[in-house]
Automatic annotation (TrEMBL):
InterPro entries in UniProt: Adaptor_Complx_Large_Subunit, AP1_complex_gsu, ARM-like, ARM-type_fold, Clathrin/coatomer_adapt-like_N, Clathrin_a/b/g-adaptin_app_Ig, Clathrin_app_Ig-like_sf, GAE_dom
Protein name per Swiss-Prot or TrEMBL: AP-1 complex subunit gamma
Pfam families the record matches: Adaptin_N, Alpha_adaptinC2
A GO term from the CC aspect: AP-1 adaptor complex
Domain of life: Eukaryota
GO biological process: intracellular protein transport; vesicle-mediated transport
Primary residence: membrane
Family according to the record: Belongs to the adaptor complexes large subunit family.
UniProt keyword Transmembrane, yes or no: no
Claim: Protease is one of the keywords in the record: no
All copies of domain GAE, residue ranges: 784-896
Length: 901
């Protein structure tokens, strides 16, 4: 027999023999290195970190020496040990070139370690990784599928944009390979290349469609993953797939999925999903009784993307989504995962109403599950979908309220947010009863957010004023010092506006004030304000707080003064609370029929108080009892009802008012918050090109001007201080306490009675109201020809400005309305404005921070322009939508000049 019949190659055999001989010689000449398992055993046996470092340093020194001596026989073993050392966190960069040598080796074992080392030690920041491109190209053309797979894995892991462009054509060719193993690896590599270089998407587009006709589940799931990535990041690609589907649907009315070719993606996905549901037991793909749940989840996610805002595609998916929702086993987490993806798909596409109800019912069943993760996911999903089908979610209101008692903090937080989203005019009494019970028993971290949300919901849906007042009083009692400062202003304004309920409220507050209220400073402030205004009704008339005759409240002047004496000299009460109490006591001198002299003595004692604000009040109020006694009755007469402007905008209401600042800031607190404020301010300063414009945002409702740390205030800063109405001398920075009902960070001033303001007073509380309404707001006169301007329109958010004339000279009022034109909820909406320093800007509280789909949020802006110059406005908009935080900026320069006339 001829030697050529056996494929004998003498040259090849001689080379192989020579290589084996040389390796044997090197093994004899060089000592055998330590095996990887022995190194791992030594490292684990080390008792201290020092011993571990000694072992690793010794082994690294040996590995370096073998690399220098070009020990090719044991290079693979040494690199493997080096990779383990690298995974422990020790430096291993000196092995990068050795990995390239292993990759160039013809042996598969060497290539495997070399490619693993390349994925661990190399990335696109290393210049060395460019040397691997030629080796990758050679291995991508190898006849061995496992070598090709190694090259594809490495390319997907460390590819740079340049390397991706060079090898994209090779990957696209391998996606059409007859070998399923290679097709799967190539599709995964294409997915990573598309992430790195999106413009290469067009190269892989023709090959993706054939992947959906695969029988192999591995290839199929990688193909679906690749198409999902393309559709999510390229609207053109998404329209490409949808366009082909629409053409098929238009061929004939009786078209069925069986008539569709392999080019139509939606019918193909529906067919694959249906086969998975109806398929019998398959050991290869079965997971806890479910056929390939990973592929089902991937297909459902892709269907959700294809059916979004597409009625035809959604209609084709309705039947299969209903089948998945009804035929999936829910006893295992695998089935719950598929149901969760099904619910997301139903809620995201244009599905039928009955299908949406089915999806919400599935989430309701999730709430009854013992697994905390499933309950949390259900609450989170219901919170996102409550605005799409509120009536369906309302059926599970009882279960949601039960989640408020869950021991898990995350579940309670999501249940609380969802509970407030479910409140309407029909269930407000029942929901408020449960939420107030939760507020009384909740941890301190929930009290601030819960109390403010209750106040907002009560203002929006209150059936009558008596119920509204009772709710606010229960909030003040239950939340204690965790009540945000603006709740005090809201309560005072409501009492002032409810003339027929003032005696009833004063009696209720007196009962609470008789007890120890050191842990309820906001309650004390509201109580003293109301008693100071309406104390005569409390003293000289029988006020009933219930139906029982024993509920009649009778108070004597001495009892009232004894309580005030305790409040004024209690070291646990804050300075702000004492300011409220001292002003209330002075007002009571005009309500009392006797004991005026005792009031004068109590007020006079504060003329030498250590705190400058209380001392100033004591001195000034004492003059009202001495030389200016004739002015006291007129100055301290009862305040008229506070004027409030409400705008009805669908389901939203806007209330324009100031918030009261409860307490003063410590100078340490001011300095600690300064960098965050400066970062926001400087961004708008640079955009406007001014040195110190006045910056106003919706969270502060006031203008804030701060010099850099350690730099004295300039004349520009002093101009801004003048706009704030503050008379502060020197170069000390000025801090204004920021507070908003919708802010997630609550004030802690009420909790600390020892905080003093070293800078002096931040404003006087010598008037009867915490902060008076802005002058001119009540005189706004909208005209029929008020111009409306589009200030911003992007990503489905449209902001409109409506200009309204004001009676004040050189003043214009702007009604801002932000409209959500998408189908997704916009939360944490924040609208900020900056104007040049020649203007004076004031912003009212917004009607809310959440914009539901097809909903809106409104806000009032008031701008004074003494110089009547051209108005330039820089806006910053931020909100969260669909799990992503969006921030943008815009400029407005086209305001009409006649508005200042």
């Amino acid at each position: 027999m001829n030697s050529s019949d056996h494929g004998f190659n003498p040259a090849f055999n001689m080379a192989a023999i020579k290589q084996v001989f040389n390796e044997a010689v090197e093994r004899v000449r060089m000592p055998t290195p330590m095996r990887l398992r022995d190194l791992i055993r030594q490292i684990r046996a080390a008792r201290t970190a020092t011993e571990e470092r000694e072992v690793i340093n010794k082994e690294c020194a040996y590995i370096r020496s073998t690399f220098r001596e070009e020990d090719s026989a044991w290079r693979c073993r040494n690199v493997a040990k080096l990779l383990y050392i690298h995974m422990l966190g020790y430096p291993a960069h000196f092995g990068q070139l050795e990995c390239l040598k292993l990759i160039a080796s013809p042996r598969f074992t060497d290539k495997r370690i070399g490619y693993l080392g390349a994925m661990l030690l190399l990335d696109e920041r290393q210049d060395v990784h460019l040397l691997i491109t030629n080796c990758l190209k050679n291995d991508l053309n190898s006849s061995t599928q496992f070598v090709v797979g190694l090259a594809l894995c490495t390319l997907g892991a460390i590819a740079s944009p340049e390397m991706s462009r060079d090898l994209a054509a090779e990957v696209e060719r391998l996606m059409k390979s007859p070998n399923a193993y290679i097709r799967k690896k190539a599709a995964l590599c294409a997915y990573r290349i598309v992430l790195k270089v999106p413009e290469l998407m067009e190269i892989f587009l023709p090959a993706t469609r054939s992947l959906l006709s695969e029988k192999n589940h591995g290839v199929l799931i990688t193909g679906v993953t690749l198409i999902t990535e393309m559709c999510e990041h390229s609207p053109d690609t998404l329209q490409h797939f949808k366009k082909n589907f629409s053409v098929v649907l238009g061929k004939g009315k009786k078209s069925s999925f069986k008539d569709c070719s392999q080019e139509e993606i939606v019918p193909n996905l529906v067919r694959i999903l249906k086969n998975l549901i109806l398929a019998g037991y398959s050991p290869e793909h079965d997971v806890s009784g479910v056929s390939d749940p990973f592929l089902q989840v991937k297909i459902l996610r892709l269907l959700r993307i294809l059916g979004r805002n597409d009625a035809e595609a959604s209609e084709a998916m309705n039947d299969i989504l209903a089948q998945v929702a009804t035929n999936t086993e829910t006893s295992k987490n695998v089935g719950n995962t598929i149901l969760y993806e099904t619910v997301l798909s139903i809620m995201d596409i244009k599905s039928e109403s009955g299908l949406r109800v089915l999806a919400v019912n599935i989430l309701g069943r999730f709430l009854l599950n013992n697994d905390k993760n499933i309950r949390y996911v259900a609450l989170n999903t219901l919170l996102k979908t409550v605005h799409l089908d509120t009536s369906a979610v309302q059926r599970h209101r009882t279960t949601i309220l039960e989640c408020l008692k869950d021991p898990d903090v995350s579940i309670r937080r999501r249940a609380l947010e969802l509970s407030f989203a479910l409140i309407n005019s029909n269930n407000v009494r029942t929901m408020m009863k449960e939420l107030l019970l939760f507020l009384e028993r909740s941890d301190p971290e929930f009290k601030a957010q819960c109390s403010s949300s209750i106040v907002l919901a009560a203002e929006r849906y209150a059936p009558n004023k008596r119920w509204h007042l009772d709710t606010l009083l229960r909030v003040l009692i239950a939340a204690g010092n965790y009540v945000r400062d603006d709740v005090v202003s809201c309560t005072i304004q409501l009492v002032s506006d409810s003339v027929d309920q003032q005696g009833y409220v004063s009696a209720q507050l007196w009962r609470a004030l008789e007890q120890d209220t050191s842990d309820r400073q906001p309650l004390t402030q509201v109580a003293t304000w109301c008693i100071g205004e309406y104390g005569d009704a409390l003293l000289y008339s029988d006020v009933s707080v219930g139906d029982d005759p024993s509920d009649i409240v009778r108070v004597s002047e001495d009892e009232l003064l004894d309580v005030y004496q305790r409040l004024l000299w209690s070291p646990q009460n804050t300075i702000v609370t004492k300011q409220y109490t001292l002003l209330s006591l002075t007002k009571l001198s005009t309500r009392f029929r006797s004991n005026v002299e005792r009031i004068r003595q109590m007020v006079q004692q504060f003329g030498s108080h250590l705190h400058i604000e209380l001392q100033q009040r004591g001195v000034e109020f004492t003059q009202l009892f001495n030389s200016h006694a004739h002015l006291r009755p007129a100055l301290l007469e009862r305040m008229p009802p506070m004027e409030v402007v409400r705008r009805d905008n669908g389901s939203q209401q806007q209330q324009v008012q100031h918030s009261t600042v409860n307490g003063v800031l410590d100078i340490a607190d001011v300095n600690s918050e300064e960098p965050a404020v400066n970062s926001d301010s400087n961004a708008l300063l640079v955009l406007l090109g001014g040195s110190e414009p006045s910056i106003v945002d919706t969270e502060t409702e006031q203008q804030t001007a701060k010099p850099p740390a350690g730099v004295p205030a300039t004349t520009d800063n002093q101009d801004l201080l003048d706009l704030l109405g503050l008379d502060i001398g020197g170069s000390a920075p000025v801090a204004v306490n920021n507070m908003n009902m919708n802010n997630n960070v609550h004030s802690t001033n009420n909790n600390n009675p020892l905080l003093l303001d070293p800078l002096g007073s931040l404003g006087s509380l010598s008037t009867s109201t915490p902060l008076p309404p802005l002058s001119g707001l009540s005189s706004i006169t909208p005209s029929l020809d008020s111009p409306s301007l589009v200030a911003y329109e992007k990503n489905g958010l449209r902001i409109m400005f409506t200009l309204e004339r004001s009676d004040a000279p050189s003043t214009i009022c702007i009604a801002m309305a932000a409209y959500n034109e998408t189908a997704t909820l916009m939360s944490d909406f924040l609208f900020q404005v900056a104007v040049p320093k020649t203007f004076q800007l004031q912003m009212m509280s917004p009607s809310g921070t959440t914009i539901p789909p097809a909903g809106s949020v409104t806000q009032q802006l008031r701008i004074q322009n003494p110089s009547k110059g051209a108005l330039r406005m820089r806006m910053r908009i931020s909100y969260s939508s669909g799990g992503a935080t969006i921030q943008d900026q815009a400029e407005m320069n086209n305001f009409p000049s006649e508005g200042w006339q």
